[in-house]
Amino acid sequence: MSTTMKDIQSLDILEKSIIRTGKDQLDSTYVNWVSVIETPVESFVRKNELVLTTGVGCAHDPNLFYAFVTDIIHSEASALAIAIGPFVQQIPDSIIVLAKKHNFILLELDWSIRFSDILEKALEYIHETKRRYFDNIEKLRKALLEFILSGKSLDLVAQYVSTTIGHELLIADKRGKIRGKCQTLSDNLQSKWETIIYEQLEQEGIYYDHEHTVNWFEYENGFALQLPIHSSGNIQGYIVVGDFGEEPFDEDEEKQWLLLLEHVTTAVAIHFLHEQAAKEAEWRLRDDFVWELSKGSLHPIEATLSRAKSLGYQLNLPYICLVAKPERVKESFEPMSHVAITFDHWLHECIRLMEEEAESIAKSFALKSMVTYQQEELIIYIEVTHPNTVSQAKTYISKLNKRIYFLFPSLSLTWGIAKQHGYSCFEHGYQEAKRALEIGRKRNGVSSISVFADTTVDRIIESLLKNDEIIDIAHTVLDSLLYYSQEREIDLLHTFMIYHENRGNVSQTARDLNLHRQSLMYRLRKIEALTNCSLDNAEDLFILDLSSRLWVNGMKTKTAE
């Protein structure tokens, strides 16, 4: 895109010029301007400027001439072209050595060539190159806009841009999923970038602070640059362009590339926004349908099946319901201070990404799914294809948890899995999964996975908590024990629960509680004295176990006298 010294040296007017040094630098040295300079140099020479000179002010003094060339080199000029004639009859060896030392391009010009003609031809070529560059940018901008507005795929966009700029290219969303790529994209560029983006997601999640607009990375074929796609101040995705030589660019060259690629990122950002708007409308319809299905408020079967078909759902398949509750949501948003996004906007996007990932992972297992987010819960129906439905559900949950952790490292999910599964059990399945979630969250804490079939005892205990007579019996057994534990700061109830869990094995219980055997025996005798129950009596053990379970599940204690 920029004019190089090879382009200038190839002009007809310079065909008789002789390259004395820096021949291997012609392709990689850029020229933005041409000037005629005689001593002194001072600040009259700019970077990337081809300098023409006759040496009139310094050729008579070798030291002065050497200093003159040194200043030209230090000014980061593209090259120095010396007219061989009455002032400089031959370039001194010391100058040749100096130029070679700095990999600097040194040309000899025929005295008969007028500098004004060189200036005219060179600047004309530079301006024409820039004009063609901006024409190509405008052509690219119009073509991309046409592609986006006509709904062309990002694969076609990537292919068109790749053909236009002559570099391999891929387009990805902010989750690292490749949405479009050119036909010539090399496997090593794709795999290298996927490794980089997944490491980034694993370390910092989907919302991380971009310190640089352009990120360079090296791969097997050379260097590639990654450019973020911005929309409303947030990252929407990435464009990755490969086939570059050594980085970094010359400053002017980088500006030109960024100007060109800015049109590409803008077009792709529009595509993502259009896609998002269409998805939002579809999501709302699908969310409402799945939520109504969960509540059992869809009755006419013909209308329900017709509506499901229009949304791409198949109700005539066996499903199992999973319910997940996101944990530490506000804590996950706190590190987002560097992102120009409100909590509500972030939460909405977070929910949509979770729904999208839930559907995507179901597809990866070749399963049909229905997903919605309601009342701070992610509700998922996945198709049942395996005899062991719980094992299939847990495998699905494991993969989804990993993806959510990739995108939001501070976020976790607590899960409930229904017992009922099969055909047309959407409402009962949802109620079971929700109960499993609530019980498991209380019993096992956040980030746990609970199955409704395993909550029988907990559901019995919850029912017993409503029975006043049973609660009175539990109070009679536990109040003195709990009061003593509070006064002496010795948790005797916990001691009993570990003892009972170990089926009366004193040695194992002592190890679990990190107690001396005699200390444990003292505690067990104290429990018997305070509760008036014998640990050797099966009925007393039952009453103690039931009472302790009631207390753990929320029974309030009375003040002991």
TrEMBL record:
Pfam families tied to this protein: GGDEF_2 (PF17853), HTH_30 (PF13556), PucR (PF07905)
Domain of life from the UniProt record: Bacteria
Purine catabolism PurC-like domain residues: 7-126
Domain PucR C-terminal helix-turn-helix: 492-548
Domain CdaR GGDEF-like: 302-439
SUPFAM superfamilies on file: Homeodomain-like
Family as reported in the entry's similarity comment: Belongs to the CdaR family.
Protein name: PucR family transcriptional regulator
Naturally occurring in which organism (per UniProt): Halalkalibacter akibai (strain ATCC 43226 / DSM 21942 / CIP 109018 / JCM 9157 / 1139) (Bacillus akibai)
